[in-house]
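Collaborator request log, item 7. Partner lab (contact: R.S.) asked for a structural prediction of Mitochondrial tRNA translation optimization 1 to inform their binding assays.
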Amino acid sequence: MLTKKPPVLQSFLSLVSRRASHLARQQYDVIVVGGGHAGTEAAAAAARVGAETLLVTQKTNTIGALSCNPSLGGVGKGHLVKEVDALDGLCGRAGDWAGIHFSILNRSKGPAVWGPRAQLDRQRYREFIQSELLSTPRLTVLEGSVEELLVTEPNPEEPGHHRVTGIHLANGSHPILASSVILTTGTFLSGSLFVGQTTSPGGRIGDAPSSAGLSHTLRERLGLRIGRLRTGTPPRIVKDTVDLSLTNLHPPDSHPTPFSFLNTHTRCKPEEQLPCYLTHTTPGVDRVVRESLHLNCHIQQDTKGPRYCPSIESRVLRFPGRRHQVWLEPEGLNSDLLYPQGLSMTMPPDVQLRLIREIPALHRAEIHTPGYGVQYDFVCPTQLSPALQVKSTQGLFLAGQINGTTGYEEAAAQGLWAGVNAARSALSMPPVALSRTESYIGVLIDDLVSRGVTEPYRMFTSRAEFRTSLRPDNADLRLTHERSHKLFEVRCVSSLRYQEAVRVRDGLQDALAALQTLTLSTHLWRKKLPDIGISESKSTILTGMDLLQYNNVSFEMLASVFPECLSPYMEFSQRLNIEAVYRPHCDLQKKEIERIQKEENMTLPQDIDYFSLPVSLSQEVREILDRVRPSTLGAATRLQGMTPAAVVNLLRYVQHTGQRGRRTHRNQPDQKEEREEELCARNASLPQ
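Returned to partner:
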């Protein structure tokens, strides 16, 4: 099964509202500002939940554009794509449609840290995303630039100092009202482009800069703490001018692995996939970088850039004399360009050409588009709740690079979750949260809102405490099914996806039960499978599940010996092999997971005065708690500067106030039934 072919691009553009005066309505449940990876996922998710949604973007033909590397997934990032897909997001299915080179990174290590990745065709990806938005009910797209947010007095019954009620467009048209607004501005928030010593306003080359009024509203009117980050992109190289014989060929996997749990295969056939090529920098590259530093104002700035995807200038200065990898990656099946991953640079275009020609395979290369750097504003994410709503401002949600992250996958994950919660807020439903014990999305959001960022945040598997449980292969069971009591009921997860998750869950459970019923002595197992490494001295009863934990045993082997009871489950063979390996580790982690979930269920009031709290806390800890205002005790434990003693004292306070609250509730039996239902609804929204 594979998602149907999208309609042509022109059909999408023809149905887009070009001006606000053409809109059928001037009020929506949710407005999403920005059409990148965060914005598209946010708009689609909000509409799926049931909110009338408006997506506002400066250029409709760049919706779903891959601004930098045309790729998706990787180590840690692939986990996010699988989870976004499990929650009915777009990017996984788009990757399956547009992928032209599929591979599993980290395959030499355990499956828990495998990184599904694909090189993408830029045009196919953009067309798929635009087609999905076109076919999404309750979603309208408007081409325009947002001048500022509409800010009013807050609802006194809810926490917050302000309330956002809509947007003003730069063209001076009538304001557009909404219950929730999601900002997904990417690198466009007060963005500046850098090439050599030239600076110009903008967030992406070829696009107009965003309105300065939006940054002013966030900083001055709402009083949010704003920081500055930077990133960059490499020059695009004409493929026919590269001597690929001087590179190392890296073919894709012979059998492409789809991102989406709904797909059994990818659009690109195995034999149609394109290879990537590996080459390296030379001492000549170092020389050109050092000789041109005085011509490069971007690299001289103190603004923090991405640690794990640095420019070639940063690499040379940080690691002098080192040989750096450069991957030459295709930009599309019919594209004549190569993307040189590892050569992000901001020096003048003529110097960029000198630099790349210091690499033997590129000694005659021509540049199609020069590389450039971007600096942009971001909002310190500790000012957000786990629902990605600004704590001090009712109705305002943020997602993507505006929260200090880097990467398509991190943006898509935030966008989806902000879209879900913005829609729920607009529809008078309580927020939902994902725990870091159940998803990488939960890890991402918790890291942002609890710890903040000092440099662009990128997801790695090492950031998750429970990697053996949070695997790419089981994201559908962790999220589509296990979260169904919250998400399926509000239509974030479609009926089709939910039914497929139930089918897979039942099939896996039946297969595991069948494996458990296969009980033989070690002597009989050795007779049936003489090549397995069971010790001669070992004499006990083993199940089929026990056998699968041996390195040289697979489900396929067991099915060949016991076809009558195992052959019906061959479609789950790889998942069963992985499940058998990790099940003992997951069982050992259950108590720790339960402890963290218990802490995360202990909420901390957002209006609490930490400076007058009658608890033994140092002044430093009180300042940390007052500045970040963690939503739960679990989030408080992960704050930098929180001591074990402070956590214990805070726990005692939470337990004491909780008991006092229960006593008060028992003494007030005549409370309104509506209030009880509201409390039940709010409790149901907490992570379980």
